[in-house]
Amino acid sequence: MLEEIGFVHISASMCAILWHQGFFLSLKKGKCPRMPLSETCLSLLLTSDPVELFLLTGSDAPHADVSFPLESQMPQSEESSKYFIHICIPKDAPEKKIHRIAVPILFWCEPHLYMDQYSNPAGEGLDGKVIVTIKGTADMVLPLFENDVKSVSYSLSKGEALITDLALLENSPGVDGAEYILQFNPEIRQTSVSIAPYILPFRFCNDSEHQKVIMGLSKKKDRLSQTILMYQEIFEANKQLKSELECQVRDANHKLNELQPELMKCGLDVSELTAVSAIDKIIKNKKAVLSRIEGLPRRKCSIPDPFKGSPNVLGKVGHLALLEDDDTARVISWHMLGDMDCVVTETTSAAKKIYDDTQGRQQVLPLETVWRPNERPLPHIRNGSALFRPVGNPVFVKDMLIFPEHVDSCNKVFATLVGDTILIDDLDSANNYRRGVVQNKMQCPTLLTRQGERIRSNGKFGGVQNKAPSIEKLRGQVFGAPLPKEHKHIHHQIELLQQYLVAMQKASDVRSEYSSHVQYLQSPDMKKKQQDLQQQEEELRELENSLATTPTRAYVKRSFEPEPCDLSVPSKRSRRKKS
Fold first, then answer.
1. Boundary (domain end) residue, out of 214, 237, 260
2. Cβ contact 156:130 at 8 Å
3. Strand partners, 343
4. Residue 515 and residue 477 share a domain
């Protein structure tokens, strides 16, 4: 908790002494909120008018060590002519941390409310007066207030006292460096109420030369602190950069090690991939092989497809699938001859548009009206077991098709168009297969042979209607052939080589950058900066020790007699009052 004491009006140079001896300070100007005060701000205040200090005590007082620009945050108005310094003194502070206050001192308070231990207003409605006196220990000479008096009284009304113009006598007697107590003693008219006096300890100090020494040391400490911070930021940034580069080098090496086993699986010799130029040459050779393979003649579907590329149009059936073997392509294309020209669309509206545009001459198949049957095993398999041992390598026709694009949609379309049609080696194998299925009381679908024969689902075969013509007689209405498997293999090799090339280039760049950075860290310039940092840190430690010991001095007793002064030169306080 914090307990309010009041405002203290002192010189700006005295703020430095208070700050360095343990007070927690924050700055306020006009109606601006209080802000933390640092040594930098103290140096800026040295040329300012006297400042006003707001005194608080408490165990949770924040430590003010953050600097801020004075000019940019202060409003320009008549009320901004005074600075307010907020002082917090922890309740548990040892006695030796009670601080010096320069002479003369002017105390000025806003309405002062008496508070209870829970920071709630107390004493409301009490009247009387508050008598302010200075107390010392033993036979110490006591300082005097202005007008050469030992005490000053202020009226207390409704539990609130406004203390103004409380000042020590210029050239007041007192022991320089000694500790005194400023005692605020309330005298209440209500005799039934008793309030303990409020005590504010302070040290009497009137040594201007001593203050100049402290401020000089403080400025030097500020400069050293800023320089050390700059060096530390440089070293920390270089340390982080080195750590990041090390991590990048590890990642690049890890990527290379990951790709090497995959390259070996593809039949590439990793020992040849030692330089970027070697990898680039191999990639060029592989691309040349790909171009040669792509230029080789192969089977293609020559059915015109003017609708491909239109919205919601997949294309004609003959262009949607590929078949590797020529015999297989011949018999399946012939079996599906009536569907090869059909246009497959995604929506019924797209199918209807094509139908209308062609006056109904173009057959269409919208996907959203297609029902895909459940996947079933071959007819000779029941509950995972074969009913008999077939010959001729039976396989579903739909499983022989290769879809270069729209895989899911094409699977759905061809499962509907070819159904459970089976492809088998020859006619004898087909008849044996059908007999075995029927004897096990199973329905047998249409059977196609690689020799071009067909056994219908009703068992009928033979005749021109069930014999596929030569592929030339199909006049281009045949499924195309995919690129050779070698093409896919080489394409995969090129992809891996390109990844390895990029990883090797990145690893080389990162290693080079890391090596350059390490050399820079070991350069004479960086070594000199490290030496400068160590030297300035040592100098700062010595300076901090000097600041810690400088306030402790032998007490110098001052006389009661006022010091002679030149009457022709008005005092500083007089000059202020006149202005």
1. 214
2. yes
3. 316, 364
4. no
